[in-house]
Amino acid sequence: MLHQEFIHKLEDLLGKDRCTFSPEDMVAYSYDANPEKRAQPEGMVSPKNKEEVAEIMKLAYAYDVPVTPRGGGSGYTGGCVPVQGGIVMAMDRFNRILEIDRDNFIVIVEPGVVVQDLQAEVDRIGQMYPPDPASVAFATIGGNIAENAGGIRAAKYGVTKQYVMGLEVVLPTGEIVRTGSKCVKDVAGYNLTELFVGSEGTLGIITKAVLKVVPKPEARRTMTATFSTLEKAAEAVSAIYATGVRPATLEFLDRISLEAVEKAIAFGAKPEEGALLLIEVDGSDHALDAEVEKIQTACEQCGVITFRKAQSDEDREDLWKARRALSFALCEIATEWEDDDISVPIARIPAMIRKLDQIAERHHIIIANFGHYGDGNIHIGMTTGKNGGPFPMKAKQEVVAAVVELEGRIAAEHGIGCVKVENLHWNIDEPTMNLMRRFKTLLDPKGLLNPSKVMPKG
Ligand SMILES: Cc1cc2nc3c(=O)[nH]c(=O)nc-3n(C[C@H](O)[C@H](O)[C@H](O)COP(=O)(O)OP(=O)(O)OC[C@H]3O[C@@H](n4cnc5c(N)ncnc54)[C@H](O)[C@@H]3O)c2cc1C
């Protein structure tokens, strides 16, 4: 239970309108997009500047209160769920774009800015912020940095860490530090920026970010290609890369996903089609037709069944339909899914899918695979079906073992949060885990910032 004195000090600092301790209000801060993880905090604070964040952390340290930072609450791994109670720090008042440095392709933003708002703002001046998770409409820059979020353009543009040039961070003990700069070349000191990117709010609270943007591509072209098997699609991906073309987007759906979407929206899939690639290239308008031609030729050499090119924005929407309808389509197969987010070196995607097929067969379950082919990121949905029995958890462990065997990673873009903590040892050996623990203890000696996330107890 929170100490009354602690509550009064927070109320003095923030005013009663920017903190709440009423149990009814706590429900709104007890969850993220992971359906299984729920935990109510004992209080919520809503600071609006770094000094307030620092004061809150000092108070939390004085009264031994856990603090969990929260952005848009769209994480899939319970990262912002306050599993040890304490207070949630809502970052939604940090919602300003502070500077757009057009000539240097830099923006400086507060962490509560919604990703889509930043994208729209830089789009206006002919620039682009490339990280593009499907949650752009509600996820925040702070949450994206904390999770090192990916998205549909990562095949060409990479993930969030490639765009974070510098950070302002409040450490768990209340010191305010600044890392990085606006400079492309910067080796002045350790690269502390990357220590915080992907640290899931366990090492510090981001209060400002210096981000890189790029010139907005003049045009883009969208295509889909279907194949009889995922192996054939994989051959096509290798052939596409061999042409030197680098698609911005290279998404895939496997047979089960395709069948589900066809059943849900009848978009015209043929029974012999066992895999779909959704491909997008961007760049200067005059060069793109040649790129599309190269992609088409590569697909034809690998036995493409249907190759479709968007001729208009309307066509593009049409081609994206199957990918966008997927989550809803899978609900037609079953309402309960065990989801996973993993990555493997991209040439091993077919091998991973074969292993997943074997797991499905062994445990009499349905496994649907889709995701970002271009960066090796597979989203796996597993279910026993609508009337199936309880899900065999052993299947999940077998997925992890298969990932590791193929030199993959157990978390690709959705983080570890509190749901994958016990599996981290599959990817991180003990000496490395100890180093991570030492970093955590150095920055957060009492272990009060976002406790029970990322690392298992030593
Ligand atoms: C429909 C849907 C689609 C999605 N698509 C994608 C996708 O394509 N790619 C992808 O990578 N992810 C995707 N996600 C997952 C999610 O949107 C991302 O993980 C996102 O980065 C979370 O941002 P958020 O603002 O919602 O953070 P939250 O969920 O609120 O928090 C996530 C983590 O960040 C920490 N945090 C938040 N703000 C700060 C801060 N200022 N300082 C320090 N730590 C902080 C929290 O403590 C927590 O650990 C999707 C989620 C949904 C629901």
UniProtKB/TrEMBL annotation:
* Cofactors, names only: FAD
Q: Which InterPro entries match?
A: FAD-bd_oxidored_4_C, FAD-bd_PCMH, FAD-bd_PCMH-like_sf, FAD-bd_PCMH_sub1, FAD-bd_PCMH_sub2, FAD-linked_Oxase-like_C, FAD-linked_OxidoTrans_Type4, Oxid_FAD_bind_N
GO MF terms listed in the record are: FAD binding; oxidoreductase activity
- Give start and end of each FAD-binding PCMH-type domain: 37-216
The source's superkingdom equals Bacteria
| Entry keywords, A to Z | FAD, Flavoprotein, Oxidoreductase
The family database entries (PANTHER family) matched by this protein are listed as:
GLYCOLATE OXIDASE SUBUNIT GLCD
Q: What is this protein called?
A: FAD-binding PCMH-type domain-containing protein
